[in-house]
Amino acid sequence: RRKQLPQPKTEVVEVFPHDRISEITIIAAICGVIGAKFFAVMEDWPKTVTDLVKSFLSGSGLAIYGGLIGGFIGVYLYLRSKKIPLIPVLDAVAPALIIAYGIGRLGCHFSGDGDWGIPVSGTHALTGQPYDWSQPPAWLSWLPHWLWAMDYPHNVVNDGQLIEGCQGRYCNHLVTPVFPTPLYESIMAFAIGGLLWFFRRRLVIPGALFSIYLILNGIERYYIEKIRVNHRYEYLFNLTQAEIIALGFIATGLICLALFRWRWKQRRS
Asked: Are residues 89 and 70 in the same domain?
């Protein structure tokens, strides 16, 4: 005699937004990589068109702002499909986003992936004037020299000249030391992350925390671009792609902060 199976039953289980963190993380990662690659190839389009397939499939060449924008679009569409409010999610992830950015920049620094600053001495690309910042100003003389200028030995892009006696794949160092801008960005990112973490329970206006994140992230990146190696456009005041996006972040953050504050006051009145 066959054993009778229990009668099937249907249960309604309530799924909360925090139960979907794994799905949100995967979507953000996939869309972030796609966005990072897209912005990277668009920034250097003449090089991209010479070998389109290699440029898109290469593991190198990822733009952080492209990753943020791509990840945001993917997560926004997912949240909308699940009818999850966007603003609380943005506030929740703001501190983590900037801290993750700082950790990523540490990876850039220690690997020497070419994402460094301009040489501490040479000729200015825009003005054509020589400069020499090989030594820090007196008020920063207490800094260790590697925090001011670094030649990135054993960098993964094999830029510069060979290190004497070195054998292996990564045996180059820069002839002229450069500003270690990834390290500067990490320090600033961790400081911003600490500030956002401090204010996360003190800001009562929904969306304010993420707006402040946009403003501080934009300010940090805009000013670091002044001493960072990057392609400058021949239009829009010779700004870099990152400077344009950073200004957009600042403007968006200021507008959103004013809008969220106005909406919050309207609801309270």
From this structure: no
